[in-house]
Amino acid sequence: MFLPYDHDDFDVFMRTRTREDFYCGTLLGGCGKQLTAKRYTDKKCHFAHRPPVHCRRTRTDEASADHLYIGQALGRWLVREGQRDTDITYPDLGTGPGGAVEARFGAGRRLIRVQLSHLPAPAWEAARAQLSGTHTNVQWAYGPHSGRGHGEVQATGHAICFTCRTEGGNRVVYVGTQGTDGTIEWTTLDTCQLTDEGIRTPHPTGTDAFTGIAATAVFPLAPGSVAFTVTDEDTVPDGPARLLYQAHVQPTGSAVVRARVSLPRSAAPPLGHRLHVLDGTPRLHPLTAPAEGAWLIRADGFTSLPAPTDPRWPGLRPTPTPRPVPESRPESRAFTVGMTRVGGEYGHLTPQEYSKLSRTQRRRYWQKVKQRSLAEQHAQAASGKPSARSSKAFPWARPGLTKHEVVKAVRDALVSAARRQVCVGWHTLAEAAGLKPDDFSDLARTSILVAVDQAAGPEDVLLSSLVVSSGSTPVPYFNEILGRLGRPSGLRPIELRRVWRTEQVRTFAAYAQPPDHGDA
Question: How far is Cα 3 from Cα 5, in angstroms, rounded to an integer?
Answer without folding.
Answer: 6
